[in-house]
Amino acid sequence: MYKAMLVDDENLITEGLKNIIDWEKLNITVLDTAENGKQALDKFRKNPVDIVITDINMPLVNGIDLLSQIKDINENTKFIILSGYEEFNYAKAAISIGVEAYILKPIDEDELTKVLKEIVLKLDEAKSSKKINLKKDTIFKGILNNIATKQDLINSKEKIKINMDNSLYVTSILLIKEGFTTIDFKYIEKTEVLYDDYGNLILVNSFDKNTTIKEIKHFYEQILEDIKTKYGYDVLIAVGDIVEDVNLLGKSFKTSNIVKKNILISGFNKCLTKEDLLSDIEMHFENELNEINRLIIDNDKKGINKYIDEILDNDKLTPQNIYDFATKVLILYDNLKAKFKIDNENADVLGSTIINVLNFTTLDDIKTYLKHKLVYLIDHIADESIKLSPIVRRIVKCVNENYNKDLSLKSLALEYNVNTSYLGQVFTKEIGIQFSDYLNKIRNSVAKDLILNTNKKISDISKEVGYLDTSYFYRKFKKYYGVTPATLRELQDY
After folding, report:
1. Residue 159: is it exposed, middle or buried by C-beta count within 10 angstroms (0-12/13-18/19+)?
2. φ, ψ for residue 209 (rounded to 5)?
3. Domain 390-491 CATH superfamily
């Protein structure tokens, strides 16, 4: 059985996780629990586990730092991050370090089970691969991902084309436009050719110690010209850092992955290094997201498609700005999907959709993906609205516009001249939750936005959204988002 550790400063969460998941059926045993990141780190050092499920906001050592430190100990440990806070900075930090999933509280049992099944499958595959003799290209990929070493190459006793000692080393990624079949690199000395999981080429090269940066870039520019001349392919070469040890090729590979994202604005037929990248400008896209939200609610499919084009065709955006915007749109999509109770059977969890969009290499792919998601949302919001009876639509509209007032089912039933008991039954049947729960949900949603986007006192926000008792507001807020209002505000500055 694979071993797991549950980490959360709230005992109710860890105990709940132990009970809601059929761990034995998944071939997992919960070896231990911890109340904070420091305790988890100490326990991991004594008894390592295969899977860590952790809250993101904890005292002493938070979830992101815990992930980073455990990855330094064992790169193969799988992580699931839990959080009541959906802001992109957290998802981005977790994904950049290497996390399997980012799941929002309150935790969905089916979503967590699905992720755990995928992790077990990966662990099974990794276990099986260890039984097979490693081939050279597998070892090289292992070095690029920091799970193999130069010694593994030596032990393989296969012919290695690069110099193994006293050299400079560079990893580059070749993105080749559609129509790519094969390219002959045999004429290029000191070159190992690999393929990544997306069919792109990876070159690992060694150079003499006295080779200059200018000469190394010229070397790759010549490869680019040869490919264009001999094969007619459009290609981008993303060149990684120059390192002085085979075991550091992972650092070079990481940089080449960052550089390749620049294809969103550079296009093909370029040879780029990190020095060619634009400096990121800080953009929050608050106004743009508000407009997208309005267009969705207005069922304006043409407007949404046009607006996505307008935003992403801005030549001042850097690749990172583009990926940030796309990810924030996906977070908005996920929030609205939950708000309107829209579920499609094969829907990806939020973390998976973010990882998906971060792997796109063209601006058109990102545009198409976002438009598809948002149009899907508009269609299904319209469907959900049609399903509601006229009286329930009026109640929903009234709550959305007057959530801060003293609303009750009884007063609304009186206003619309219907029986209170009947109205309650119809509302619960069509909306899926009782009237009081829906009112609290809307109030807390507005409160969340005010906490994140204003400097207002939390006690004032409580009153502004309709709660006269601040302590009651705190309890309700934590129920919906898994953290207190004060903690949520602190998380912004993480």
Report:
1. exposed
2. -60, -30
3. Homeodomain-like (1.10.10.60)
Largest pairwise CA distance in the chain: 88
Tell me the pLDDT tens digit for each residue of 156-199: 878 889 999 999 999 999 988 765 667 888 788 899 998 876 67
| Alpha helices per DSSP H over 98-168 | 109-130, 136-144, 150-156
Nearest to 34 by CA among 44, 26, 24: 44
Compute the distance between CA of residue 107 and CA of residue 466 in angstroms, rounded to an integer.
27
Q: Higher confidence at residue 133 or residue 240?
A: 240
Could you give the CA distance from residue 480 to residue 365 in angstroms, rounded to a whole number? 34
Check pLDDT > 80 for residue 459: yes
Q: State the pLDDT confidence band at 95, using cuts at 50, 70 and 90.
A: low
- For residue 94, how many other CB atoms are within 10 A of its CB? 24
Give me 458's structure tokens. 């939390």
Contacts (Cβ under 8 Å, ≥6 apart) of 132: none
- Rounded Cα distance, 440 and 480, in Å: 9
Closest listed residue to residue 260, CA positions, set 366, 327, 172: 172
Q: Which residues are CB-neighbours of 292 under 8 A, at least 6 positions away?
A: 304, 307, 308, 329, 332, 374
Query: Which residue carries 């005292």 as its tokens?
Result: 59
Q: Could you tell me the pTM of the whole model?
A: 0.47
Q: What are the helix and strand counts (H, E) for the chain?
A: 22, 10
Q: What is the pLDDT of residues 391-427, one digit of tens each?
A: 888 888 888 889 899 899 999 989 888 888 888 998 8
**Cis-peptide, bond into residue 485, ω within 30° of zero:** no
Give the mean pLDDT of the chain: 83
Mean pLDDT across the stretch 261-287?
A: 83
Q: Which two tokens stand for residue 307?
A: 């607006």
Q: Report the pLDDT averaged over residues 109-131.
A: 81
Distance of CA 143 to the CA centre of its chain: 24
Q: Could you identify the residue written with the tokens 């997201």?
A: 289
Q: What percent of the chain has pLDDT over 70?
A: 88
- 3 backbone φψ class: left, alpha, beta (φ>0; ψ -120 to 50): beta
Of 329, 117, 160, the closest CA to residue 249 belongs to 160
CATH class of 2-130: alpha beta
Q: Which fold has domain 157-276?
A: Alpha-Beta Plaits (3.30.70)
